[in-house]
Design a protein that fits this description.
The structure is a homodimer of 212-residue chains. Chain A is an all-alpha fold. Chain A has two domains: 49 residues, Arc Repressor Mutant, subunit A (Orthogonal Bundle), CATH 1.10.10; 140 residues, Tetracycline Repressor, domain 2 (Orthogonal Bundle). Chain A contains eleven helices and no strands. In chain A, α1 packs across α4 and α1 packs across α7. Chain A is globular. At the A-B interface, α1, α7, α8, α9 and α10 of A face α1, α7, α8, α9 and α10 of B. Chain A binds a DNA duplex (30 and 30 nucleotides) through α1 and α3.
Chain lengths: 212, 212
DNA sequence: TTGCATCCTGACCGTATGGTCAGCTTTCAG
DNA sequence: CTGAAAGCTGACCATACGGTCAGGATGCAA
């Protein structure tokens, strides 16, 4: 840790504290849900007094909103891989890799997102009706084109997307279950690789994807 | 409603009230999470005074535990279809149908289960380490045998199971997202049928399942 | 009819939580 | 150097929540 007693710039202070709070909040919200999370717990984890949280984020809702929006952006970002692809093999492989990497590196974020959606997306409804819908429609169109071009079987694009989302996020959201069934140990590098390869293989074979 | 002023038997009273409470609790826990749910809300939804809840279920935890255990049993029950099957086509088809039916008929239960696992299974850890593990090991063995008998490609059985769980439960847990992307409407009979068929087709094709 | 076990509930309690605020310290532009 | 703005925080408050309980109502066996 480069944390000497060196004086900090105002800007740095703000940035670092917000970052610490958001990180702590993500973890606590993921572990306890919105209702179960307490500002005190988040404060303790961030190493700050509770009142300091309210200095940066006026209310619990505002903090939660920030956490969820952060995740949503990471989530959408994984989509880029999808676009540049020449065909289903490239595109879907890259997307699965990206989403699995998110599940592995940001399991807390994934859980918060899942929780948000499960509770009816009280915070993100707007985003779902605009950004997410546009994103989805775009990918549906790409898949439809692939089908027309004979690059894959005529599978319903929406259900295919749901399958991709479900399968990849499962490794984050149900990570605890997977660990338990893995003898209480988290998946090794090798097991993660196997997971990715199995998913890719089953889905790509399942949709009859033709190398572009 | 067959609720006339007819006097009730003691037995009936107990059974009906417990049922009403469990139903209301399932819904509230699903919508708000354990932390966000309040006994008052559950009581209101069940049409009973809050104190009456505590007559039947001493604590919030005890009520929650009952709800979660109920779901776990329904969940395991869907496994039977899997066993009697002669091969992967029959077995996995039946399992997908059963789990999709659960997602459609018990979305709240599915959400509570998901929530429980996401939060580290504080209540169900024992079950996961015993019942769930045994169940899983059994199915893994069946799948392994199918592979040996050449009835399907050599896919990792565990990752295949995760894929089945993820894909089917997604329609309950992320039902709100799916509805939003469906123009705000819940899926029609036809759309549910299409969902099932797409899933079955992709997975069965993906694992190279041979009709037994 | 009687007595008892079960069922029911309004009123109450202690605690934990989200949020506030007055007043302190620190940074930094001028 | 100085003053104002930004950052910080212990102490405090109102509320909401889980849970309790005394005592009334109701079903039922004998």
């Amino acid at each position: 840790m480069a944390e000497t007693t060196r004086p900090m710039r105002r800007q740095d202070i703000r940035r670092e504290n917000e970052k610490a709070i958001l990180l702590a909040a993500e973890k606590v919200f993921a572990e306890a849900g919105f209702g179960g999370a307490t500002m005190q717990l988040i404060a303790d984890l961030a190493g700050l007094p509770k009142a300091n949280l309210h200095y940066y984020f006026a209310t619990k809702e505002e903090l939660y909103r920030s956490v969820v929006q952060n995740i949503f952006e990471i989530w959408l970002q994984a989509a880029n891989c999808f676009d540049a692809a020449r065909g289903p093999v490239d595109g879907i492989s890259a997307y699965i890799d990206a989403k699995m990497e998110i599940s592995r590196r940001h399991p807390d974020g994934s859980k918060v997102w899942a929780s948000e959606v499960m509770h009816g997306a009280p915070v993100l409804q707007d985003y779902m009706e605009s950004t997410l819908r546009e994103w989805t429609d775009g990918r549906v169109e790409i898949i439809r084109r692939w089908i027309e071009e004979g690059k894959m079987d005529p599978v319903d694009p929406r259900h295919l997307l749901y399958m991709l989302w479900a399968t990849t996020q499962h490794y984050a959201d149900f990570g605890h279950q997977i660990e338990t069934l893995n003898g209480g140990k988290s998946l090794s590098d090798r097991q993660w690789r196997e997971a990715k390869e199995n998913i890719k293989r089953v889905i790509l074979t399942g949709i009859g994807a033709q190398p572009a």
